[in-house]
Amino acid sequence: MAPKKNYELSESEQRDLVTLIQQGRALPEKYRFLLFEDRQEVELVWNGKTRDVCTTVLPFQTLEHIDEPRFETKTQEDLFDSRGRQLKGWTNKLIWGDNKLILSSLKSGALRKQIEDAGGLKLVYIDPPFDIGADFSMDIEIGGETFHKEANLLEQIAYRDTWGRGADSFISMIYERLILIRDLMSDDGSIYVHIGPQVSSMLKLVLDEVFGKDRFQNNIRWKRMSVSGFKGKQKLPFNHESIYLYTRSEKFTYNSQHTEYSAEYKERFRYKDATGRLYRGDQNLGTATSPTTIEQMRKDGLIHEGENGNLYRKQFLDELPGVLLDDIWTDVPWVTAGHQRIDYPTQKPEALLHRIISLSTNEGDLVADFFCGSGTTAAVAEKLGRKWIASDLGKFGIHTTRKRLIGVQRDMKAAEKSFRAFEVLNLGRYERQAYLNVSGRFSDSQKADILAKKEVEFRELIMRAYKATVFGDNAAGQAQEGFFHGARNGRLVVIGPINLPVGRLFVEEVITECRKRGASRVDILAFEFEMGLFPAVLEEAKGKGIDLAPKYIPAEVFDKRAVDRGEVVFHDISFVEATPRYDKKNKLGISIQLTDFSVYYTQGAAEAAISAMREGKNEVMCEQGQLYKVSKSKEGVVHKERLTKSWTDWVDYWAVDFDYLQRKEIIKVPIGTGLGGVATLQGFELPQGELTLPEFEERWTGGYIFENEWQSFRTRQSRDLDLTTALHTYDRPGRYTVAVKVIDIFGNDTMTLVPVNVG
């Protein structure tokens, strides 16, 4: 903002300014316009407004790679392996996490080059949570009953962040993300922002500021549903949502679209030719048309003879393009019951995204949705032959999208159409490293001291979230009580490594320390546990008289408000059992049978919920790791019926990688982010406004990518679940490690490893 020219303050204004500055008080807003020039004619101002945006760059962790094998790939042998799975080219991306960190890492991280190599980001569609007081809970079917699932805590916290101060916090949230999106888009890219009437006027000013008024193209009004549901309201019903269309520059893709003619217009085509095509007599040929031309038109079936004997050119209805699409859309109905419906609260109809994607992209272009919800944008993009990136904060939303996209792959395979593989990513362990990041100019010893202090504070935060008594730390950051960090309910508590999964060696150390102290009960808190560790290690500990209770540290511990409110829930681990079934006829053939899945959840305050039930009302709730249907009669008698009668009731999805150790997880990180590999990787801060990407290097995380080769899952239309895989045939005899992943009805995943030997 430059100083304003040719303006002199009055003496009283000068005195006021000096007094305010001496008192350290904020200057009134009027002085901003009196003293400084601003390019904005009209600008939206809100509490805490800043043009600073997130600049943290973190590597993405690959959780899963999903690719339905294709029937025929001989014409593209370099792109596919012998089983028809994609080897090269763009892989679509489904990303779980905070879209602010995701956008910052896409904008300035290693994936930016992939995006540019794919032609750049041509289209962004976002449908942010614009409904103040919205209910993002959903219903899950199980055992013929419906379980009411609240949004997970991360989603609730994000929603409180978005609307905690009303419109101020929503605009602040979307402003930063729009700047990041703009900087990620290609020069010829377009963005559609879907918004309701509550904040649409304010959002228009924000979009004008971020993209420029001259980049505004349309305010599309979408009539979303019938108004019948609004009877009795003392105002006109809301019956539309706005979709703002802006572009990155004056150059952008626009493919005109047409809609059907009205029934009244179609009635004008009241004649049929010999093949049944509707037409009307449109052009009176008169005497100006030569006999030769008329004769040829007769042969071509293009002449209509009117009742008065006049000759007309036939105009066929099916040759007309339709009505040119404008910015009022009344022909796209809301999602209703049917194959498209998946009972996700913010689900949008595929027809709406089909229109948007068709308008502003061509086949092969890259499309993104950073509030993807149930994955409608990604599903339609895949069907239309576009590349896509989709992200969401909700784990259940990511799981819903994963199942939906697998279904799309299966449908396209059956129709012998091409499709792309997709991978499930998150920032996972790197968010924890960002939390512990030490930025600034410090010596190595200073950084080590600061990091040790941060780790102590982090452990204290985790212990407070767990409601445990903390053992004090000494100056070196070591627990004064030795190995353990605290106690709770008569049990010792120890926190595993922050940046590494808890493995057998750590558990054995826990057992040794327990025996030294004469302790017999201990809780192990960790973000990750090595696969295959349980239940065997628990049985070994039990044999030595030690009761181990491993628990996952949830991502909610990063939010101090959730910790302060006591809202953080630590879940026990789940166990998966799977058995290989060898084929007697095919020595290289094997199938995997899912034989058991144990899970523990609690919804909390079950008895309080029962007492709060109205008479005659039914509820489904979780208690002591099982689901119950709870009913209360008019007489106040409570009846509980267990719904999870079988372990299979908990399984929503399971998948198998028949050769898990074949593909290492390689990440690209900015050079200079640490010498110790993943364990010491820190968030990389780009200088504010810097557009040049840093130099990257590849590192192996020590893990492997789950290659989803077979899966079975429940859908709204079919609740059936296959418990044995199809026969898999290996290329050669040998020892292999099979990975089996199970996702429960809440979207939480567990994996185990099964060694096999074929041939």
Care to count the β-strands? 39
Name the average pLDDT: 80
- Structural class, by secondary structure, is alpha+beta
Largest sheet features: 11 strands, mixed
Low-pLDDT stretches are 132-138, 474-480, 603-613, 675-690
Task: Give the C-alpha Rg.
Answer: 31 Å
Q: For the terminal residues, how far apart are their CA atoms?
A: 74 Å
The proportion of residues in beta strands is 25-35%
User: Strands of the largest sheet, in order across it?
Assistant: 16-8-9-7-4-17-18-3-19-2-35
| Count of discrete alpha- or pi-helical segments spanning 4 or more residues | 18
Helix percent reads 25-40%
**Apparent shape:** globular
Mind explaining what this structure looks like?
The structure is a single chain. With 759 residues, the chain is of the alpha+beta class. The protein has 18 helices and 39 strands. The strands form ten sheets. The chain has an eleven-stranded mixed sheet with strand order 16-8-9-7-4-17-18-3-19-2-35, with helices on both faces. A hairpin with a 2-residue loop joins strand 28 and strand 29. It is globular, with a radius of gyration of 31 Å.
